[in-house]
Design goal:
This protein is α/β, with parallel strands linked by helices. The protein folds into two domains: 171 residues, Response regulator (Rossmann fold), CATH 3.40.50.2300; 135 residues, 3-Layer(aba) Sandwich (Rossmann fold). The strands form two sheets. The protein has a six-stranded parallel beta sheet, sandwiched between helices. A six-stranded mixed beta sheet has the order 7-6-8-9-10-12, with helices on both faces. It is elongated. The two termini are 23 Å apart. Keywords: Signal. Pfam families: Peripla_BP_4. This is Substrate-binding domain-containing protein.
Amino acid sequence: MSALTSRRGLLFGTAAVSAGALLAGCTSNEPKSGKPATSDQPAADDKPGKPVTIGFAGPQADHGWLNAINENAKNRAKQYSDVTLEITEGSNDTATQIGQIETLINKKVDVLVILPADGKALTQVGLKAMRAGIPVVNLDRIFNTPQAYRCWIGGDNYGMGLNAGHYIGQKLKDKPEARVVELAGLDNLELTKQRTQGFDDALKNYPNIKKVARQAAEFTVESGQAKMAQLLQAQKKFDAVWNHDDDQGVGALRAIEQAGRDDFLMVGGAGALSAFQAIKQDNSVLKATVLYPPTMAASAIDLARALGQGRGVGGLAEYEIPASITLYSAVVDKNNVDQYMSTGFR
């Protein structure tokens, strides 16, 4: 995958900030200054156990969400006195990332956490680790076969669209002939198709609402501004817009402000700090965002530690950790934004 396409791959209500709650019982393409926010939830079980060395391999942190992934992993590992974290520099070049993972395999780490730049391309190295007796926690972008990982944990792209659609649907359910538009991400990515499908499926529950336009952007501020400007020019009146990504949403909000429009509501996606701040200030069209939480990396460390210590996770009756965990895509609006503020990424 190229740097541009190596993107990460919520019904209503408040969900746990990360899968860490269970264990306890989709950004700009340019680096930004400031410390990425991470989960402030306590570690699931900080009572020391068997020492575990966890190898962590992710792609290059060339935008906010991936940088937050790395920070969540590192900060979670620091909470455990029995965990040693071996973290690679990360790369969007698949050959380089494969080499980094092979180095971790040769070091005989106890467990691997891998967020592949390209799940398909890195499947073989996942298989290699598993065959070497090193369990793999596959983070977000999934390998081609379950044989390449012991556990998968990641976000819910379909759920993002579904919950965005239901949120908008509830806001517009009493408005006759309501019109909505969609500012999607890269159309060549499966995750974009899943987000659109979820959104469309949700809108089927609201016969008074019609989606009248859709533009695909590129998950960048610049593309968000350009594509939103096109939507505003083509659609003189609509009631809501769902934007797949909070970073391209920064550009979208610029275009909306430049056009002098405030006659609709906007729902974002992912959970950027800038979106949370705008929602809290409540002085723009942005009223909510649906999460794709980078705190999944902290939960991946919890799972890797449990694997290395040969135990399950609290809150479940089984002796083993699950084979897969799909995180809930919570809707964040002014009613619950304070709860999630610390997890917003820059």
